[in-house]
Structures are given as C-alpha cells and as structure tokens.
Design goal:
Strand content: over 45%
Number of strands: 7
Distance between the termini: 13 Å
CATH superfamily: Hypothetical protein, similar to alpha- acetolactate decarboxylase, domain 2
Number of domains: 1
Order of helices and strands: EHEEEEEE
Structural class: mainly beta
Helix content: under 10%
Number of helices: 1
CATH topology: 60s Ribosomal Protein L30, Chain: A
C-alpha cells in the first residue's frame, strides 16, 4: 500500500450528450479545462452501448486479468474513475456498473473500454493538482498499468 495527501483544484461538471463517445469526450473535457489529473467521484447516465472488460461465462483463471469484453446495449448505470496525464493526452480510467434495460436490468460491471451516450450523462471531474498522477505497469498486478504517483 502507498498513499499521498492530495491537493485538489477545480471541480468541473460535464454533461455528455446523446451520441458522444464516453472516453473521448471525457478526455476532450480535460483538455478544454487544462486538467492533467483528476478523479471522477461519480458519473451516471444511459448508454446506447458500453463495452466493459468482462465475460459472458466464468473465466478459466479468475485471478488473471480478463482477456475479453462484453458489449451491453441500451443500459443505464453509474461509475467512477481517474484521469492521468498520458503521452498522447489525458488517459481516462473508468469503471461502471450498468443494467441492461431489455434484460430486466441484468447488471454488468467492469473497466470501461468505450461507450456511446444514449441520454445525457452527468459527471463530476475533480482536478488533482498534486501529486502528479501517472499509470505504470505493475508486476504485482499481472503487469496491468496502475495508478502511480510520488508518495512523498
């Protein structure tokens, strides 16, 4: 475990509109407001489709990173995440739980790979001024890129 006191800056409310790409528009919002690092305490909305890391059936190795994804259509849900500074711009890391409207609100949850907004989706971005957030491969987590910062 490691940690650091966080110094926060601005709080920005963002509304994604129908047809918007969730990850792309969140990155664009960070660029627009000059945000290099942030946390997203909550986002909520409806999606025409959202792709999550997951599987329709139990994986052979539940401890290994999921090698597949699921596409959930016409769903509503909520989630949270972080934003780090990447070489190509803001790197948005989201997790969500969504319920498929056409399947009695059957729920799926996981890391968001992408999605398209169906109805306005609201979220809060809270800027983190320090420490500087990054993502680096973590050998203790099967090499997945995980949140990193100088814990001084």
């Amino acid at each position: 475990m490691f940690g650091s006191e966080v110094r926060v800056g601005r709080t920005v409310l963002v509304v994604l509109e129908p047809g918007d790409d969730v990850i792309g528009e969140l990155a664009a919002a960070c660029l627009r407001f000059g945000i290099d690092g942030a946390y997203i305490p909550v986002f909520l909305g409806a999606f025409s489709e959202i792709s999550l890391i997951g599987a329709e059936h139990p994986p052979a190795d539940e401890d290994a990173p999921m090698p597949s994804s699921v596409l959930v259509r016409n769903c509503e849900g909520l989630g949270s995440g972080t934003v780090t500074r990447g070489a190509d711009g803001p790197q948005v890391h989201l997790h969500a739980s969504v319920g498929a409207k056409g399947d009695s609100a059957r729920a799926s949850a996981g890391h968001v790979l992408g999605g398209t907004v169906q109805y306005p989706t609201e979220l809060v971005l809270t800027e983190i001024l320090s420490p500087v957030l990054d993502r680096v491969a973590n050998p203790r987590a099967h090499g997945l890129a995980t949140l990193s910062f100088d814990p001084s």
